[in-house]
Write a structure and sequence with these properties.
The chain has one domain (8-264): outer membrane lipoprotein receptor (LolB), chain A (Clam). Helices cover 23% and strands 37% of the residues. The protein has helices spanning 8-18, 30-42, 44-49, 51-58, 154-159, 189-195, 198-210; strands at 60-71, 74-85, 90-96, 110-115, 118-122, 133-137, 164-175, 178-188, 215-222, 228-239, 244-255.
């Protein structure tokens, strides 16, 4: 995980990972909005199954991510920000690590490139030259990179909703000033993997095996075009060191659809081939 950096908090997180304000109708009569909400409630599962396709049609977006976990009595939050190209399933995020417990150590932001089947990281940590990238095969990660990178891949977050089995339509609300519909439910990682594109399938299958349970509770917020504006997943995995279950809450916020998102993967000569220090 990106938190494999200096300090006790960073090491603790690595050990754990590795071992609305209600709004009315907009532009519709009260009866029309009620009818739309009734359909939304009836078609909740299908609406969520189509969320990834709606993002592909949207093309690109800016993204903010937040990952929270509590382990050993310490709560850690890792934040990220960047852009994502949903057509090519590629993105770039700048991930900020938490301070050390004493609050004295400043960690350099980690640049992450997200691609089908791979995660690239720069400023990865000790032992990696500053100008080199580290490449990780996401299918080889026990969590399929839903947690390891310190941010859930935005496209994978939407694809996970293909596994939605039980869904409740909560109602209309707002996300960053945009009217949205709020859905709450549980997704099955195995089901999501079966319907996912080839680039995401192996990673989701790995996550289904690696987490403590394949059932993932979520809250999803979609706009009137069916685009995912915000999603919060709650993962759980076994902490082998403390012999308990660690809960991880991952939130992805999408906005400014259609922005330029020129994501370029590093050349082979720019990828670090040596041993990574722990």
């Amino acid at each position: 995980m990106v938190a494999q950096a200096e300090g006790r908090v960073g090491r603790a997180v690595v050990a754990a990972v590795v071992a609305g304000l209600m709004v009315g109708a907009t532009g519709c009569s009260g009866g029309g909005a009620a009818a739309e909400d009734a359909r939304a409630a009836t078609d909740s599962v299908e609406v969520l199954h189509r969320a990834a396709a709606a993002l592909e049609r949207a093309g690109t977006a800016k993204a903010r991510t937040s990952m929270e976990m509590a382990t050993g009595g310490t709560r850690v939050t890792i934040r990220g920000e960047g852009v994502y190209d949903f057509k090519d399933q590629m993105g770039q995020l700048k991930v900020l690590l938490p301070q050390d417990p004493a609050g004295t150590a400043e960690h350099r932001p980690i640049t992450e490139l997200l691609a089908p089947g791979a995660l690239f990281m720069k400023n990865r940590g000790a032992g990696v030259p500053a100008d080199k990238w580290v490449r990780v095969d996401t299918a080889g990660l026990s969590d399929g990179n839903l947690v390891t990178g310190g941010a859930t891949d935005p496209y994978a977050a939407a694809e996970l909703l293909r596994g939605a089995r039980t869904v409740t339509y909560v109602g209309r609300t707002e996300v960053a000033g945009t009217p949205v519909r709020h859905y709450r439910g549980t997704a099955d990682l195995n089901v999501a993997a079966e319907g996912a594109p080839k680039g995401q399938r192996a990673a989701l299958k790995a996550a289904a095996k690696g987490f403590a349970t394949a059932e993932v509770p979520f809250d999803a917020y979609l706009d009137d075009q069916g685009r995912l504006r915000k999603v919060r997943h709650r993962f759980s995995f076994v902490n082998g060191l403390q012999k308990g279950t660690v809960a991880v809450a991952s939130t992805t916020l999408l906005y400014d659809f259609g922005v330029p998102a020129d994501v370029r993967l590093p050349e082979s000569g720019d990828i670090f081939a040596g041993k990574i220090a722990e």
